[in-house]
């Protein structure tokens, strides 16, 4: 066995938070591009019918031959539905609003929470990382993501009550761990849209560190307009402006994840 084949199975991570607008998709897209630029083979799965991770990777969600939806209902494989993000340097299993219908199609299946896990298994030897950009709901789609994953990355803003807002997600993770996926764990909390000039954010950040220790990633993602502008150019911020503070922070986060998976 050479080194590559000894660790040929992808590590699968959900980027999840039940709130919308907290930086899940920005984290998914930029972590994917950051890992790719560090030489990792990455598949980004867009589990949100909004298709923002698809568009943010430079793939037009209105012109897709096949999507995650067809994969979940057994009409396509990941190998045929995934498309390369030329901007990002990784593959994307794309989605659009059609994915919302999967909830209804899956509900009568016995192993309805396992469909994504089974699909990922067929391509696990092709990637080092599979990242799943979750929707802001604790739906059957999100359950499919959590059932398929080794761990969860939780992006959060350092706001008052930020932690209380996480209790539903943490309870869902516990339930999935107990019933569907004993491998599942929280990998870490990622501080995003951070503004060090705001005292409250510094205080919440310090509280997170003292409460959760090394479950808080060292990398901190600043609020940075270049990260917000990049999707309209169909590019991850890491590629759009690699020298910006936001891009540098996501590149550092990628390096931290590569180290972190060695300890899992
Ligand atoms: P979610 O996927 O959780 O709904 P998004 O990643 O789409 O959240 O982010 C919500 C909005 O905030 C988007 O307009 C995005 O461009 C912006 N945004 C995310 N992270 C940052 C950041 N670090 N700095 C500035 N804007 C950001
Ligand atoms: Mg999103």
Automatic annotation (TrEMBL):
CDD domains under this entry? ParAB_family
In terms of InterPro entries, this protein maps to: AAA_dom, DNA_Partitioning_ATPase, P-loop_NTPase
Q: Which Pfam families match?
A: AAA_31
Domain of life where this protein originates: Bacteria
Domain AAA span(s) in chain numbering: 11-185
Protein name, per record: Chromosome partitioning protein
Q: Which organism is it from?
A: Pigmentiphaga litoralis
């Amino acid at each position: 066995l050479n080194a590559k084949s000894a660790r040929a199975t992808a590590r699968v991570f959900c980027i999840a938070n039940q709130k919308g607008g907290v930086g899940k998709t920005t984290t998914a897209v930029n972590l994917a591009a950051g890992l790719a630029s560090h030489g990792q083979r990455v598949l980004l799965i867009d589990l949100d019918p909004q298709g923002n991770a698809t568009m943010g990777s430079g793939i037009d969600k209105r012109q897709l031959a096949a999507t995650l939806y067809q994969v979940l209902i057994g009409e396509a494989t990941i190998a045929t539905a995934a498309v390369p993000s030329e901007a990002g340097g990784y593959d994307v299993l794309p989605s659009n609003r059609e994915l919302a219908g999967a909830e209804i199609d899956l509900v009568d299946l016995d192993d309805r929470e396992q469909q994504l896990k089974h699909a990922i298994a067929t391509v696990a030897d092709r990637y080092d990382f599979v990242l799943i950009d979750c929707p802001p709901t604790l739906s059957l789609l999100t359950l499919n993501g959590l059932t398929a994953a080794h761990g969860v990355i939780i992006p959060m803003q350092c706001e008052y009550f930020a932690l209380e807002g996480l209790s539903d997600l943490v309870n869902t993770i516990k339930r999935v761990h107990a019933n569907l996926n004993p491998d599942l764990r929280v990998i870490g909390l990622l501080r995003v849209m951070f503004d060090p000039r705001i005292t409250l954010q510094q205080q919440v950040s310090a509280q997170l560190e003292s409460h959760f220790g090394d479950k808080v990633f060292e990398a901190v993602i600043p609020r940075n307009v270049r990260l917000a502008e990049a999707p309209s150019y169909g590019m991850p911020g890491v590629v759009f402006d690699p020298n910006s503070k936001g891009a540098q922070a996501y590149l550092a986060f990628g390096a931290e994840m590569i180290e972190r998976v060695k300890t899992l």
